[in-house]
Every structure is written in structure tokens, then in C-alpha cells.
């Protein structure tokens, strides 16, 4: 909407300007106390005043008059004196000084006089308690930023190097962290007592101590002016490599010349408050640089920027206050307690005003603290310090760097770089080539699985390498003092970039070094001499069947023979007339006497047969089942006997680790300084604990300096060696007198070791995965295990033979069941035969004029006859027996006596024989 050519906005602005013009004097004095060290702040103060005086939107009719005074650092007396002097002329605010002692004095005067005190220094006191305002970010929020970045970086341990006690307050959140997280922190004060010949502090002793502890993550809290010197000294002791990560708490790392460290690959991270790319900064920076107002190459010191912002905040607040009240400065005297009436209001206005300054947005919370601010996360790259993310008190760290780009950068940096590779000389992983003339040089001197693996990886990632076998020949174990040995030590000391050996990935090692993905899987096993061959035994023919089976067979043989005998006696069809021409013969005969039954059964068991032929269905059923039984048993025996005769039984005193642990006759041990030793040392499993106790106390020592030494010991002595299965397999394939005893005690893998935080680890892991996918790892394995150096020479027929086991009830038990079933069937058949025949006899006897007996008494009498021990092969025919019976009955009646039937052994009940015929028929 237009009102006579002016819009409403312009009108409001004009009214505000007019209003301000009415309530403010034409000049307002503001004081600044500056120490020589902070010339930048003094310049920023003056520049900011100049800038505001030129602006039309803030204090358009008022000129700020800067009253600048220089005071010495920590000279509180001089500072207070200057301040009192300035107050006499009337001032609206005092800026500075920076040193804490002087600032405290000035602040106490401000308390009384109610003059706003504007500060731009780090201070851990709560501002709400004083009549001052501080533009420096609040210490607790800053402290949170440090813990946030450490969490983001995933550090599990770090060392804090601090210069002054303020540093500990700055890092208080971090120092509290270990109680909540897994972070382990070591705190060291930067000791400036040691000096170098150029009389500068010597930081190397403390740095060396950190290096010795294998710490690679270091937080440095010091003034930015000391950073370069510390990093330079770190570089001198080789602590500025890709394996180290420094987090600097200074917000002014932009002001440090880091050119010397740009290509070392060292990780340097820091926060900054003043982003040089911000438009506000860009608006002033070139002009200040041109006029040589700032010493910096790139950016503005934080405190300088804060001073510039402070003046702007003050001006804006004064502008707002003047719209509400008539603000006039007043001459005050330090000797009288007469406060300035507008001081409190002006301070309050400053706390509710916000500006977008060089240090970002300046906003105050309810407590009058600048706790809501944003920081840039910066990292040193090859192009200098780069912004990689942002920190915000609410959202924490937000890293925006492109990790793919980082990966590509690392890959690029690896190209044509020469890495130092440590290894352990142990067949077939890494071995010295035979070189009688000594012509081989460098890496050509070595061969083996790991050497080939390394070559493949190097070809893939295009780096060069120098192989240096580890001096002590060990893989790496920690001694009582926590010192590591072997290749692990080399990596901890960063003497090597890679450890390519049969290095087992373990939890403990992982705390000190990094591992790539595993390239081979294995477990601990026992290496021992092959047992002596057993001398063939005299009765080895018994071996194919177990003792149980032999006993059951004897029982079955006796049982079947006896049953055959009984059934044959019981069954009427087994009694035949020995005189076929005389059908009226008085005698019948049975071929199945007890001896004949035993003979018939053994004959069939031996696959020979006999003249005895069963006639009755019952005896035939039993015979058939017995034939079946013998067929199965004999076939099984024959088959198993063949296996037993071809297999040579080994006499092995130990079958597994448990056997080993329960004896002391065969000493056993491991190689020293490796994961196998550590496995037993730390095991909580009873068997392995027992083994460790034995190993530890054994004399002479059962430990060997190296793995090959252990293998030699197995060959020469009575000694079992606990070694990894891969080595075990390699050894047993070349030394046919050795073998692996039992299975694996655990399961783990070999990986390539790198120093902690190595940028190359992921690239090498990827290369390993690729080689595995392309089956190159398998090809390498076949080459070194199976093809080279006589692999597979022990795979002769002898070694391939498997063990033969005796047959037990589980194998042939079924045939016994069939036999038992057959027995039952034969008994039933015999009963049927008997009943059938009894009915026939009953009719005949009736025809002969004899009284018929009941079926039950017939069965009973026949059974008695059958089981009678004196079972001969003949007996009277049925007709004759009836006659004898009748004669006996007559005799009894004639003598007037009633005879009881004879039930003794020699006379079947119901058929008492006359004494004269007893011998003949029994
Ligand atoms: N490969 C093992 C290791 O890394 C050696 C051992 O058997 O102890 O320690």
C-alpha cells in the first residue's frame, strides 16, 4: 500500500530512526581494554565500531566512540585503574580484557557500577551470576561437542594431553564418559619442564610414552599457537602417520600452518566456530587481509570474530533500548557506589537480541549463556583443513563427507606406496627360498602361501611392499607387563604396515591391532606319531564278531538243538517204523536223539549238513529258521573277517585331548608366543585347564620356540604337539609317520594384521573377499598344501584303509529275533501235529477195543515221554504200548492190589513197563 509515494515499511523505519534520534545522545563512548597478545581483538573492536558508525539501520544518529586502552596481561591493578578513568568520562559498556585475573577485577567494578561487561573469552563461570555477557560458547555445550565427536569416530580409547587445568573443564564430559561407555581414557599433562636446545618445550618424552603404550588416538587441548610445535615433534618420532588420529580442542586450527602434515595421512580433526566461507566473514576478511590487520593466512581467530560480533550485539541492543527509554551515559567515579541507571536494561537487551555474526548466530538461552551455537567439524586433507560435517547441540555430529570419496582417496594414496610387511617364517605360509649362491634379493628371497597371497593383494591394490621377517619369530603374545611380542608388537609400534602370516584373529589382539577379514579357517589340533602296528593275534579270527554275539550264538545253538530234540520226540511224525516190511512192528524209532540233534544243528551251522533229515512240519520249521540264521550269521562273519584281515589294527595310546589330559606319560605342549598357548592359558574348560597346568609345570619345558621346532620334537621324541589344524594337515601330508589325533579343539581364522585405525584394512579385506570369490585362495591352498613339497605322498592305500569294527548285537541282533520267532512257530506246529495224530489214534484204539483217554492226558503223557532224560531212539509202537498197558492193568487186578502209576525217570507216566522189557524200550 502506498501513502504519498512511501510504503508502510519505510514509514515504520523512519519513525524508528526518528525515535532513536530523539532518545540517544549524538555520541556514546564504549571502552575496550586490550592486552598486547590480543591485538586482533583491538583491531576487530575498532573495525566493528567503524562499521556500525557507517550503518544507517543501527544507531543512525549516534556515533560510537571507541575508548581503547592497552593493559598488560594479568595486570589487574592497571586494568581497574584504566577502567575507573574511562568511567569518569561516561561509558555505555566495557569490552575485555582477556586475561582472567584482570577480567575478574573489571567485572567486580561493573557489578557495583552496573556497567555492562562484554567478554569474549572462554570462561567456566556461570555468566548469570555476574553483570556481564560472554560471546564465547558455553563450556558445557562445547564439552558435549567433544564427547559427541569421539562417539562419532568410534574411539574405544584415547589419551588426553592437556596444557592447563582449564582443559580438564573443557573436556569434562569426555572425562565422565568412561563410566557410561566402553571408552578408556588416559590423561596426561603436557609437561613443559623439558626443554630443547632452542629453549622451546620438548613434547617428545610425553609423545614417546603415548607411542609406547600403542595409543594412536590423542586429544590435544592447548593454545593454537603450540599446535604446530607439538605436531612437528610428533612427526620427528614418527607419530604423524596414517595410523594416528589427533583431535584438537582449539577452535582456531585454521590459523595453524598444517602444510607439513597434509600428505602424511595423519588424521587431524577439530571444531571451528568461525566458518571462513560464511558471507559475513567473507565480507570483512579480504579487506582486513588487504590492510594487513590480521596475521592469519586463512581465517579470523575466534576471539577476534567474537569481539567484532560483541560490538554489533551491543549496538543492536542499545538501538532497541533507546527506542524504549532515554539512554544517556553518566560520569561515574570508582570511589562512589553510584550505578548507571541503564546498565541492567542494556545488558538484558543484549541477552534477548540476536545477531548473525562472524561466529554464526549469536543467541542467548534463559540463563544468559551462549549454549545454542553450531560448529564446523574439520579434518586435515591433502588440500588443507576441510569441513567434513557440522555439530549442533540438539542433533550432535552430522558428518557430511563422502565416504566413497574417502575410500577412493585412500586407494589412490596406496597406489605405488611401499608398505612394510612383517611375517613369520613357517612352512608353508612363508619360507626362505633355497639360494645356495646367495643371488636372491629382497622379496624374491621368500615363498609360500602368505607370500603369494600378499602378491595377489598387492597386484589388486597396486602397492609395493618389502617383506621383513619378524626378528623373534613369534606371532605375538602379551607378557605379564602387558608387553607384546612378535608381529603384533611390530604392528603396535607401527614398524610394519601389514602382518601377512598365519596370524590368528583373537579378541585380545583385536584390542591392540586391526585384522582384515579371515582368509583361512582352522582350529587347534593334536599332532602325534602314528601308532605302532599291532601284531596279528592267534585268535584274531574271533574278532569279526563281538564277544556278546559269540555267547548268543552258543546259547542259540544249544537252545535250538535241545528244542529240536524235544519237538522231534513230541511230534508223532518223527517216530517211524524201523522195519517197513513189517507194518505190525512193536517198536518205533526217532532219529533225533540229543546227540543227533546237536550234530544236526552244528552241521548246518558249519554249512556242512548231516544225514539226519527232519520229517515233521515242526522240526522242519525249526530247521529252516536255523538254516536262515546260520546263513546270515556266517555271511556277516565272512564279510567282516575279510575286512579284519586287510586292516592292520593300530595301537593308539591317545584318541583325543581328553585322553591326553588324563595321562602324563606322553608330554605335550605348544609353541610359545602364539594364540595356541594363549588358548590354553585362558581356557575355562576343565580339560584344557588341566592341560595348561601340566604344560606349565612340566620339566623339561614342553613349549617350543617355534612351530617347526615343535614338529621336529614330535618326530624325534615321545611328544604330542598342539598345533593349528592347517599346519597339522600340511605336516601329516609330508611326514607319513605323523598324524592328527582327534578333532579340533576350537574354531578360528587367520587374518592379515594392520596397525590400529589403518586406512588400508578395509581395502585389503575387500581384496581378500574378491580373491576368495574368484577361488584364488583355494588355488593357493591346493598349490601349497597338495602340490608343492611332496603333498599327498602319504595318501597311499595303507593310509586310506578304514578301520573294521566287530559286529555286535546292533548289527546282527535281528537274526536272533527271527530264530526265536521260528522256535515259537515250530512249537505251535508240533502241537497241531500232536492233536491231529491223537484224534487219529483215538479212533484206532477204539477199534482195538481200548478205552479212550482225554486229549489233555495224552499230551501230558507224550510230553513226559519226550522230556525224559533217558530219551533213546526207539520205543514200543502205539499198539504195543496199549497192550502192555492192558497187561499191567490185568496184573494189578489179579494180585488184588491197586498200583499207583510210575512217574520216575525211567518209566513214562501211564505206560509202566514190565521189568523185563524196561531196558529194551526206555
Ligand atoms: N597362528 C598362531 C598365532 O597366530 C600360532 C599358534 O599356533 O600359536 O599365534
TrEMBL record:
L-glutamate binds at residues 504, 509, 675-676, 724. It is a multi-pass membrane protein. It comes from the Eukaryota. It is found in: Postsynaptic cell membrane; Presynaptic cell membrane. Keywords: Cell membrane, Cell projection, Disulfide bond, Glycoprotein, Ion channel, Ion transport, Ligand-gated ion channel, Membrane, Postsynaptic cell membrane, Receptor, Signal, Synapse, Transmembrane, Transmembrane helix, Transport. CDD domains: PBP1_iGluR_Kainate. One of its GO terms (cellular component) is postsynaptic membrane. SMART domains: Lig_chan-Glu_bd, PBPe. Gene3D superfamilies: 1.10.287.70, 3.40.50.2300, Periplasmic binding protein-like II. Pfam families: ANF_receptor, Lig_chan, Lig_chan-Glu_bd. InterPro entries: ANF_lig-bd_rcpt, Glu/Gly-bd, Iono_Glu_rcpt_met, Ionotropic_Glu_rcpt, Iontro_rcpt_C, Peripla_BP_I. One of its GO terms (molecular function) is signaling receptor activity. The record marks 681, 770 as: Interaction with the cone snail toxin Con-ikot-ikot. Disulfide bonds join 736-794. The record marks 654 as: Crucial to convey clamshell closure to channel opening. This is Uncharacterized protein. It comes from Owenia fusiformis (Polychaete worm).
Amino acid at each position: 500500500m502506498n501513502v504519498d509515494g512511501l510504503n508502510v515499511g519505510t514509514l515504520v523505519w523512519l519513525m524508528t530512526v526518528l525515535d532513536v534520534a530523539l532518545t540517544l545522545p549524538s555520541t556514546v563512548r564504549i571502552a575496550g581494554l586490550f592486552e598486547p597478545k590480543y591485538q586482533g581483538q583491538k583491531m576487530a573492536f575498532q573495525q566493528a565500531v567503524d562499521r556500525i558508525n557507517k550503518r544507517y539501520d543501527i544507531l543512525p544518529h549516534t556515533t560510537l566512540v571507541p575508548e581503547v586502552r592497552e593493559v598488560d596481561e594479568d595486570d589487574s591493578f592497571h586494568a581497574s585503574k584504566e577502567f575507573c578513568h574511562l568511567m569518569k568520562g561516561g561509558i555505555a559498556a566495557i569490552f575485555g580484557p582477556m586475561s582472567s585475573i584482570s577480567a575478574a577485577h573489571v567485572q567486580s567494578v561493573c557489578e557495583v557500577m552496573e556497567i555492562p561487561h562484554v567478554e569474549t573469552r572462554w570462561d567456566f563461570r556461570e555468566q548469570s551470576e555476574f553483570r556481564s555477557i560472554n560471546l564465547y560458547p558455553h563450556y558445557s555445550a562445547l564439552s558435549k561437542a567433544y564427547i559427541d565427536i569421539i562417539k562419532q569416530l568410534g574411539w574405544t580409547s584415547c589419551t588426553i594431553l592437556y596444557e592447563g587445568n582449564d582443559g580438564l573443564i573443557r573436556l569434562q564430559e569426555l572425562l565422565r564418559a568412561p563410566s557410561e561407555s566402553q571408552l578408556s581414557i588416559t590423561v596426561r599433562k603436557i609437561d613443559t619442564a623439558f626443554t630443547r636446545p632452542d629453549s622451546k618445550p620438548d613434547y617428545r618424552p610425553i609423545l614417546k610414552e603415548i607411542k609406547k603404550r600403542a595409543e594412536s588416538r590423542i586429544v590435544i587441548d592447548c593454545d593454537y599457537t603450540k599446535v604446530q610445535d607439538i605436531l612437528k615433534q610428533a612427526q620427528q618420532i614418527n607419530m604423524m602417520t596414517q595410523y594416528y588420529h589427533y583431535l584438537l580442542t582449539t577452535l582456531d586450527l585454521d590459523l595453524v600452518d598444517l602444510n607439513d602434515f597434509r600428505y602424511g595421512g595423519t588424521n587431524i580433526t577439530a571444531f571451528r566456530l568461525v566458518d571462513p566461507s560464511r558471507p559475513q566473514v567473507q565480507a570483512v576478511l579480504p579487506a582486513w587481509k588487504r590492510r594487513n590487520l590480521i596475521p592469519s593466512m586463512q581465517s579470523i581467530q575466534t576471539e577476534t570474530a567474537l569481539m567484532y560480533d560483541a560490538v554489533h550485539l551491543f549496538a543492536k541492543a542499545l538501538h532497541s533500548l533507546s527506542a524504549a527509554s532515554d539512554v544517556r551515559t553518566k560520569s561515574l567515579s570508582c570511589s562512589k557506589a553510584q550505578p548507571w541507571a541503564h546498565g541492567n536494561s542494556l545488558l538484558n537487551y543484549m541477552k534477548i537480541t540476536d545477531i548473525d555474526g562472524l561466529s554464526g548466530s549469536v543467541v542467548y538461552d534463559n540463563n544468559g549463556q551462549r549454549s545454542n551455537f553450531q560448529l564446523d567439524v574439520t579434518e586435515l586433507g591433502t588440500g588443507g583443513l576441510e569441513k567434513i560435517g557440522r555439530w549442533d547441540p540438539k542433533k550432535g555430529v552430522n558428518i557430511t563427507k563422502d565416504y566413497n570419496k574417502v575410500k577412493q582417496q585412500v586407494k589412490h594414496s596406496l597406489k605405488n606406496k611401499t608398505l612394510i610387511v612383517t611375517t613369520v617364517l613357517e612352512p608353508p605360509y612363508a619360507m626362505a627360498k633355497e639360494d645356495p649362491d646367495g643371488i636372491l634379493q629382497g622379496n624374491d628371497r621368500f615363498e609360500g602361501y602368505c607370500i603369494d597371497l600378499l602378491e595377489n593383494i598387492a597386484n589388486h591394490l597396486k602397492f609395493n611392499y618389502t617383506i621383513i621377517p619378524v626378528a623373534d619369530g613369534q606371532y605375538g603374545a602379551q607378557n605379564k607387563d602387558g608387553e607384546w611380542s612378535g608381529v603384533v608388537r611390530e604392528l603396535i609400534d607401527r614398524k610394519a604396515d601389514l602382518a601377512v602370516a598365519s596370524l590368528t584373529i583373537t579378541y585380545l589382539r583385536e584390542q591392540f591391532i586391526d585384522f582384515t577379514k579371515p582368509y583361512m579357517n582352522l582350529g587347534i589340533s593334536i599332532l602325534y606319531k602314528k601308532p605302532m602296528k599291532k601284531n596279528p593275534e592267534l585268535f584274531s579270527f574271533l574278532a569279526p564278531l563281538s564277544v556278546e554275539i559269540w555267547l548268543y550264538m552258543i546259547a542259540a545253538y544249544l537252545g535250538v538243538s535241545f528244542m529240536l530234540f524235544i519237538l522231534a520226540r513230541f511230534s508223532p511224525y518223527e517216530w517211524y517204523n524201523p522195519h517197513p516190511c513189517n507194518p505190525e512192528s512193536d517198536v518205533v524209532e526217532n532219529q533225533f536223539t540229543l546227540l543227533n540233534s546237536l550234530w544236526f544243528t552244528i552241521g548246518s551251522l558249519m554249512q556242512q549238513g548231516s544225514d539226519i533229515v527232519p520229517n515233521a512240519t515242526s522240526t522242519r520249521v525249526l530247521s529252516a529258521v536255523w538254516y536262515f540264521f546260520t546263513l546270515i550269521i556266517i555271511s556277516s562273519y565272512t564279510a567282516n573277517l575279510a575286512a579284519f584281515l586287510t586292516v592292520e589294527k593300530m595301537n593308539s595310546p591317545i584318541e583325543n585331548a581328553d585322553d591326553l589330559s588324563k595321562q602324563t606319560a606322553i608330554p605335550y605342549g605348544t609353541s610359545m608366543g602364539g594364540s595356541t598357548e594363549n588358548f590354553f592359558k585362558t581356557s575355562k574348560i576343565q580339560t584344557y585347564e588341566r592341560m595348561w597346568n601340566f604344560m606349565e609345570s612340566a620339566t623339561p619345558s614342553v613349549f617350543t620356540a617355534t612351530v617347526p621346532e615343535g614338529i621336529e620334537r614330535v618326530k624325534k621324541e615321545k611328544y604330542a604337539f598342539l598345533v593349528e589344524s592347517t599346519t597339522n594337515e600340511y605336516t601329516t601330508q609330508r611326514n607319513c609317520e605323523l598324524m592328527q589325533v582327534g578333532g579340533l579343539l576350537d574354531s578360528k581364522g587367520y587374518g592379515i594384521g594392520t596397525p590400529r585405525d589403518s586406512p588400508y584394512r578395509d581395502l585389503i579385506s575387500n581384496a581378500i573377499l574378491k580373491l576368495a570369490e574368484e577361488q584364488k585362495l583355494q588355488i593357493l591352498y591346493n598349490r601349497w598344501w597338495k602340490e608343492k613339497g611332496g603333498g599327498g605322498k602319504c595318501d597311499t592305500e595303507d593310509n586310506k584303509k578304514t578301520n573294521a569294527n566287530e559286529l555286535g548285537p546292533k548289527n546282527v541282533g535281528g537274526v536272533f529275533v527271527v530264530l526265536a520267532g521260528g522256535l515259537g512257530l515250530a512249537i505251535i506246529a508240533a502241537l497241531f501235529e500232536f492233536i491231529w495224530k491223537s484224534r487219529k489214534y483215538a479212533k484206532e484204539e477204539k477199534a482195538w477195543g481200548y478205552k479212550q483217554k482225554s486229549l489233555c492226558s495224552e499230551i501230558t503223557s507224550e510230553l513226559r515221554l519226550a522230556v525224559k532224560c533217558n530219551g533213546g531212539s526207539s520205543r514200543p509202537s502205539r499198539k504195543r504200548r496199549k497192550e502192555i498197558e492192558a497187561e499191567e492193568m490185568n496184573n494189578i487186578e489179579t494180585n488184588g492190589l491197586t498200583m499207583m502209576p510210575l512217574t520216575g525217570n525211567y518209566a513214562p507216566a501211564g505206560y509202566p513197563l514190565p521189568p523185563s522189557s524196561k531196558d529194551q524200550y526206555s
